[in-house]
Amino acid sequence: MPFERFSIIESTLREGEQFSTATFTTAQKLEIAGMLDDFGVEMIEMTSPCASPQSEADIRTVVNAGLNARVLTHIRCNKDDARRALDTGVHGVDIVMGTSPQLMQHSHGKSIDQIIELAEDVITYVRAQAPDIVIRFSTEDTFRSREADLLRVYLGIADLGMVNRLGVADTVGVAMPNQVYAMVHQLVRLTRLDVEFHGHNDSGCAIANACAALDAGATHIDTTILGIGERNGITPLGGLVARLYTLDREYVRKYNLRLLPALDRMIADLCEIPIPFNNYITGSSAFMHKAGIHAKAVLADPTTYEIIAPDDFGLVREIAIGHRLMGWNSLRQRAQTLGLALDDTTLRALTLTVKEMADTRSLSVQEVDAILHEAASA
Question: Does the predicted TM-score (pTM) go above 0.85?
Answer without folding.
Answer: yes
